[in-house]
Specification:
This protein has 370 residues and is α/β, with parallel strands linked by helices. It is built from eight helices and 13 strands. The strands form three sheets. A six-stranded mixed sheet has the order 4-5-8-9-11-10, with helices on one face.
C-alpha cells in the first residue's frame, strides 16, 4: 500500500510540474530567446527607447465564443504578456487596435467591464506607459460607428483620434484609421484638423527649436513614427513575403479600400503631412513589410510593418515586435510565442515519460520485494 501511495504521489507531483511548465514557464522559455535589436546611433543612451508593439488581441465579449475558449485565450495572452514585460522590460507599450472583438456591439456597462478586463489581463508596472489606438472591432467601421462609441473608447482608453507623443526625443503620431474616411463627418473633420495641427507643430519644430514644446515639456525634433490600426494603401497582401504573411491564395485577394487598408488619398495625405520615417499597423492578423515611395510628394521612402495578431484565436503562431528606437535610427525584431501544437506535444511527451518512469519504478520495486 505504501509503495502504491508513493507512486501516486510521484505521478500527481509530476503532472503538477508538467502543467506548470506548459501553462506558465514555457512562455518565459520562448520569450527569452528573443532580444532587443541593436542600433547604431549618434545619440546618447538616454534617447534610446525600447518599445513593445502588439496588435489585435480581440478579447471576446458577451455575445460570441464559448466561455472555455475565452478563458483559454485570455490566459495565454496574459501569461505571454507578463513574460515579455518581466524579461524584456520595455520603456513603452503600443497596442495597435482591435483590443476587443465585440466592442462595437456592447452597451456602456458592458464596455466598461471590457476595459477593466483588458487592463487586468495586460497590467503594467507604473514605470511603463501603454498607448493604444482604436480598431474597427472596438467601435465599428466608419459607416457603422454608433453615436458616442468613438468618444467612450477615447475617454476610457485615453486614446484620442489623433495623438502626438514625444518620448526621449522620439516622436509618434497615433491615429484612428476609421477617422480617415475622407468625408465631412464630425469624426473625420476633427481628425483632419488635429493632423494639420500636428503637422504644423512638427514643421515649426524642425525649423526652430524654440517651437519644440508641449504640455509635458520641451523636446528635439526627429522624424515621427506613424501608429494606427489599418495598413497604409496597398492593393493586396501579394507584396508580403514575410514568413508570417497570409497563405496563398488569401495573399492575392484584393483589398477593400477603407475596410482592409487606407485609401490612396488618405495615405498620400498622411505621408505629406506627417512625413514618417516608419509606420506600424495591425488589422490583417499577418506579418508584412512594405516599402512606400511617393515621388509626387518629395520622394518619401520608408518601411511599413504590419504586426501579426497577438491572439491564438487568429493565428497558430502569435507574434509581437520589439523595436529599439533613437531619434536618428531604429531597428525592429519580430518575436514569436509558443505554438499550441508545441504546447500539446510537449505535454504529451512529458506525460508519457512520467508514466514510463512510474511504471518502471513499480516493476523494479516488485522484483526486490519478491
Amino acid at each position: 500500500m505504501r509503495r502504491i501511495t508513493k507512486k501516486l504521489l510521484i505521478l500527481f507531483g509530476g503532472l503538477i510540474l508538467i502543467g506548470f511548465y506548459c501553462e506558465c514557464l514555457i512562455y518565459y522559455v520562448v520569450t527569452i530567446q528573443c532580444s532587443w535589436p541593436h542600433i547604431e546611433t549618434n545619440h546618447s543612451e538616454n534617447e534610446v527607447l525600447k518599445a513593445f508593439i502588439l496588435a489585435d488581441t480581440h478579447l471576446l465579449g458577451p455575445y460570441r465564443g464559448h466561455w472555455l475558449d475565452k478563458w483559454r485565450r485570455e490566459w495565454q495572452m496574459h501569461q505571454a504578456f507578463q513574460a515579455i514585460i518581466t524579461l524584456h522590460k520595455p520603456d513603452i507599450v503600443f497596442v495597435l487596435g482591435d483590443l476587443f472583438d465585440e466592442g462595437e456591439w456592447t452597451d456602456n456597462k458592458q464596455f466598461k467591464n471590457y476595459v477593466k478586463r483588458f487592463f487586468d489581463l495586460f497590467s503594467l508596472p507604473s514605470s511603463i506607459k501603454m498607448y493604444v489606438v482604436v480598431g474597427n472591432h472596438d467601435i465599428g467601421f466608419h459607416h457603422r460607428i454608433r453615436r458616442g462609441f468613438a468618444q467612450r473608447f477615447s475617454k476610457l482608453l485615453k486614446a484620442p483620434s489623433v495623438q502626438h507623443i514625444a518620448i526621449k526625443n522620439n516622436h509618434f503620431v497615433l491615429l484612428n484609421s476609421m477617422a480617415l474616411e475622407g468625408d465631412s463627418c464630425n469624426l473625420c473633420t476633427e481628425a483632419r484638423k488635429q493632423i494639420e495641427n500636428v503637422s504644423d507643430t512638427l514643421l515649426k519644430c524642425s525649423k526652430n527649436s524654440m517651437h519644440c514644446f508641449n504640455s509635458e515639456g520641451t523636446y528635439n525634433y526627429s522624424q515621427p513614427i506613424l501608429m494606427q490600426h489599418f495598413p497604409l494603401y496597398r492593393v493586396s497582401d501579394a507584396v508580403c513575403t514575410e514568413p508570417d504573411a497570409p497563405p496563398l491564395p488569401e495573399r492575392n485577394k484584393l483589398f477593400r479600400l477603407k475596410i482592409d487598408a487606407l485609401s490612396l488619398e488618405a495615405t498620400k495625405y498622411l505621408i505629406k503631412k506627417i512625413k514618417p520615417r516608419a509606420a506600424f499597423g495591425g488589422h490583417t492578423h499577418h506579418g508584412c513589410l512594405v516599402e512606400h515611395y511617393y515621388e509626387d510628394i518629395g520622394g518619401s521612402r520608408f518601411l511599413e510593418y504590419s504586426v501579426p495578431s497577438f491572439s491564438w484565436r487568429n493565428r497558430p503562431d502569435p507574434k509581437y515586435i520589439l523595436a529599439t528606437i533613437a531619434p536618428d535610427a531604429y531597428e525592429v525584431e519580430k518575436c514569436g510565442l509558443p505554438r499550441e501544437t508545441t504546447l500539446i506535444l510537449t505535454a504529451v511527451i512529458m506525460i508519457c515519460v512520467l508514466i514510463r518512469y512510474v511504471l518502471r519504478t513499480r516493476l523494479i520495486g516488485r522484483g526486490r520485494y519478491e
